[in-house]
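Example for tutorial group B:
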């Protein structure tokens, strides 16, 4: 939790769109890392403690985790698109002059890829929860 607070505190030190993207990239990365730790722990319980594993699987079927899954999907898409933008800018330093345009393109790509995926996931979750 201290790492998240440091990111937020340091993130407000500088202003501008680049700063917001920096903070969002770090926070989405922390969200993805949290999921991976939870996932590895849950899957390892299938071997070490099958009863706990079953309880965790039932917990994952709740509406709260369905919403969390949508946030995870959004984090994954945003993090991937922004990471691609950063990698391309690092490979071609002259493109830093076009950073604003690159940011707009990466956000547009995240919305174009992520929105349909999230809608499909939300519809599947709703139909599963209504059963």
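The residue assignment follows.
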């Amino acid at each position: 939790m201290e790492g998240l607070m440091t990111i937020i505190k340091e993130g407000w030190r500088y202003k501008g769109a680049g700063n917001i993207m920096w903070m969002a990239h770090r926070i989405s990365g922390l969200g993805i890392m949290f999921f991976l730790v939870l996932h590895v722990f849950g899957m390892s319980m299938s071997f070490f403690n099958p009863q706990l594993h079953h309880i965790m699987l039932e917990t994952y079927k709740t509406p709260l985790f369905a919403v969390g899954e949508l946030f995870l999907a959004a984090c994954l898409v945003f993090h991937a698109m922004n990471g691609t933008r950063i990698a391309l800018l690092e490979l071609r330093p002259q493109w830093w002059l076009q950073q604003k345009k690159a940011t707009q393109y990466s956000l547009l790509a995240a919305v174009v890829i992520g929105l349909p995926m999230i809608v499909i996931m939300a519809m599947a979750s709703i139909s599963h929860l209504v059963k």
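The CA atoms of residues 24 and 121 lie 22 Å apart. Compare this with the pattern of hydrophobic and polar residues in the output above.
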